[in-house]
Amino acid sequence: MKLAIPAFAILIGSPVTIAHNAFSRLIVNGTVTPDYAYVRNTTYTPHPNIAPYDRLVPYTAVTQEELDATNITCGRDAFDAAGTTLTATVIAGEEIGFEVYNCCGLVPHIWHEGPAQAYMSAPPSGTALEKYRGDGEWFKVAYWGPTNQTHWFPKDKSQLLFKLPGNTPPGKYLLRVEQFMPLLPDYTQWYVNCAHIEVRGPGGGDPAPFTTAKFPGTYKIEHPGISLPPEVGIARPEDPTPAYPYAFLNLTAYQPPGPALWTGQ
């Protein structure tokens, strides 16, 4: 692992960049990096029906527009910060992940019900990572789903960690994390961020057969992993709070959206 953290990086994560749970900190082999040093920062665009402390990274409400927009790739306007985002060196086989932004009296952990996933995408040959918009193909490297029939693993966690396969092909990648709460059929919330990493190691793995995801493009609001089918959860009319509109009944039957997980085959 190699992390070069300049002094200015400590100042990147300012109070105006807070969220319900923005993943502003990259974790490499136990080292937690400063806010938005190795993670592309995002902009704040308040939703007209939501309190002003919400950070939308991105935030999808009522329609499926955000799932078909570039904000779903790395967060709202994340490419604007690509040129100032540092790249962390990661040795294949190390544990990596993300930590939730902790500031200003907000809850310093994931508090939305729902799963989380991580993807990787390499820029095309000849394209610098800082110039890559993430419009290529992605493969899934981590999934955090339910722990039992009624509880999601990410709930109340401040970190999401996984081991990068030891035979991951060397090179530079966008590492994308998403955590979302599957809600009513026309309403979802998404928390998405992307880090810059350079993988070093012997290689030998082939994720190419798993590079079937595109952002935007792969996810649709009607997917059963986004709009929960009745055998997984039912609406609770007695509790109209948007954050918890479902009673989770059978999460072990849940199938996440996107391609199969690449584990280093």
Principal-axis shape: globular
Order of helices and strands: EEEHEEEEEEEEE
Q: Which radius of gyration do the C-alpha atoms yield?
A: 18 Å
Classify the secondary structure makeup into a structural class.
mainly beta
Tell me what the structure shows.
This protein has one helix at residues 71-74, and strands at residues 25-28, 31-32, 59-60, 88-91, 95-99, 116-121, 139-144, 159-163, 171-182, 188-200, 233-235, 246-248. A hairpin with a 2-residue loop joins strand 1 and strand 2. It starts with 24 loop residues before the first strand and ends in a 17-residue tail after the last strand. It has one domain: Coagulation Factor XIII, Chain A, domain 1 (Distorted Sandwich), CATH 2.70.50. The radius of gyration is 18 Å and the shape is globular. Strands 3, 4, 6, 7, 9 and 10 form a six-stranded mixed β-sheet that branches. It has 265 residues and is an all-beta fold.
